Amino acid sequence: MSVDPRLKSRRFVEMYGGTNLQTAPARVFEWSAIVFLLLTAWLLVLPIQTYADSDTIRVTLDLSTGGGVTGLVVDHNSDAIVVVWDDTPHVFAWDEIEALSAYKARLSLLTLARGREGALLAVDHFVLGRFMLERGRVVLARKEFDRAKRLDPSYKSMITKALRAHRVTKKTTDASPFECEESKKDSPVSIPGEAERVCESLTDSLRSRLTDAGLTDLTPEQVEQLKVAVRDVYDRFGQKVIEELGDEVKVIETEHFLIHTDATPSTGKQIADWAERMYDSLCVAFDFDPAQNVFLAKCPFFCFRSQARYLKFARVFDGYNAEQALGYSRSIERLGHVHIVLRIPDPHDRRAMDRFASTLVHEGAHAFVHRFHKSRLIPHWVNEGLADLTSEEVLKNRCFTGEKTDLLVSQYVKYKWSIGDVLRSNEPLEVHQYQIAQSVVAYMRSLGREKFVTFLTLLKDGNDLPHALAYSYDGLSFIDLERGWRAWVSRNSVSTGTPFAAGFE
User: Fold this and answer.
1) How far apart are CA 347 and CA 173, in angstroms?
2) Which residues 6+ apart lie within 8 Å of 183 measured at CB?
């Protein structure tokens, strides 16, 4: 992978700066060492000249999910920041960074943009204050607002409106019952993986039918019998969930989904709408007749506003620790089964609900893909890239993935960083690779829907990536794919929302 020369020089100093070169027995080695030191010093100066128009800084970011990164900032905007950490570019939405850490980074970047400390404008302080207010840091927000007013008194009315809106939101949020008593009871824990055990109740013949989503060799009467049998299993599954988690869990049935939730009626209606819009979008993308119902007996969704219920469901029914996940999809390949589990945030928190909606559509797309054609798992980058792209297409301005993707992949093109390791891999993605996958899938889709559907179908039939790619895209290789993708990124955007602008304003 090609790396920013500034990073190369810094890594050289870190790796070799403490070496005692005087221990070498030969004078030739001493002169070589001097040459290396002079070359290193020259490399340290060269990037400053190369990046004269884009001076940058190193930042340390504490992530909301735990841990942190320290690296050189190569790009940023009001949505996200790109840093090179461990020789690899990573993109983080500002909401994914702890509030105080995000504040320090944004303050440093604004100071860099203005040229020196103390040179920030009123608008800079107002933007910082509004950002901290949205993150719940009212004291720090007021300090920034006060600085803005001292520099420009005309900001007083905008600040008053921002504080008033925050108080209304907080009052509504505090009044919302979020943990219900039933979910706090310490009831006996069932055998982990209860979902799989329930689905095992299907006979061997039914299980073999479930793994073939097409069911082309069945008569209409046999398909209907299969639907009834699978629906009976899912109804019993849902009843076990209610027995375990409490009767506040209700069922919302739509054309393609069985949504088990403790959400309010209005939130439940919104969940159903997002799920069906996701389904319709993928039917169009795959040229799939919605009347066929890819899920056969509808797809179970489990959405809980109670954190206790969410964690308990994951532990009891899937044997999974979901503390660090907003949601997940469970696919059981040999049974042809898939279900979605999600944690509902405070419905009055617009940003949190946007993230929830993105997760819902993303995981729902995984469920659709799992059942499309055959229930065979496909390479992770194809699966994850398609899921993120579907979220962007369905939710548009409410989805944050496209903006992050555009910001990161533009750096891959600018610095000629390779993506070959992602394309050739069947392994789960690293956090920084999701945006690459989304962008590559968007590019492949742009080459023609029929080609992409053929590519996905071949993967589902068990073909490997190189064969499926070459057959579907007229002999295309991984090298050709990356070359074409780089040219496409230079001219196109994944985001369907408003194009991002530089800076924070």
Assistant:
1) 8
2) 245, 246, 248, 262, 304, 306, 308, 309, 312
Distance CA 472, CA 459 (A): 11
b/e 286-323 (16+ beta carbons within 10 angstroms → b): bebeeeebbbbbbbbbbbbbbbbbbbbbbbbbbebebe
Instruction: Report the alpha-carbon distance of residue 382 to residue 402 in Å, rounded.
Output: 16
Architecture of domain 192-489: 3-Layer(aba) Sandwich (3.40)
For residue 338, list its beta bridge partners.
331
Task: Give dist(CA 91, CA 410) in Å, integer.
Answer: 11
User: For the segment 280-334, what is each residue's pLDDT rounded down to a tens digit?
Assistant: 999 999 999 877 789 878 999 999 999 999 999 999 999 999 998 889 999 887 7
97 DSSP assignment: B
Q: What is the DSSP string of 199-248?
A: HTTS-HHHHHHHT-TT-TTS-HHHHHHHHHHHHHHHHHHHHHHHHHH-TT
456-495 b/e with 16+ CB inside 10 Å = b? bbbbbeebebeebbbebbeebebeebbebbeebbeeebbb
Query: Which residues sit opposite 260 in a β-bridge?
Result: 251, 302
Going by C-alpha positions, the residue among 420, 421, 418, 388 that lies closest to residue 403 is: 388
**β partners of residue 332:** 337
The first and second tokens of residue 331, run together, are: 């696919």
Closest CA to 305 of 254, 273, 349, 347: 347
Residue 427, helix vs strand vs coil: coil
What are the beta bridge partners of residue 77? 502
SS3 448: coil
**What is the chain's Cα-based Rg?**
26
What does the block give as tokens for 330?
A: 């469970």
CA 461 distance to own-chain centroid? 27
Q: Cα(446)–Cα(198) distance, rounded to whole angstroms?
A: 41
How many other C-beta atoms lie within 10 A of the C-beta of residue 385? 28
* Separation CA 330–CA 341 (nearest Å): 8
Taking only the tens place, the pLDDT of each residue in 16-75 is 233 222 333 444 445 454 444 444 443 333 333 233 335 789 999 999 878 899 999 999
Q: Is 103 exposed, middle or buried (0-12, 13-18, 19+ CB in 10 A)?
A: buried
Q: What percent of the chain has pLDDT over 90?
A: 60
How many whole angstroms separate alpha carbon 390 and alpha carbon 283?
Answer: 11
Domain ranges (residues) in the chain: 5-50, 192-489
Neighbours of 127 (CB within 10 A): 20
Helix (H) or strand (E) holding 125: helix 122-134
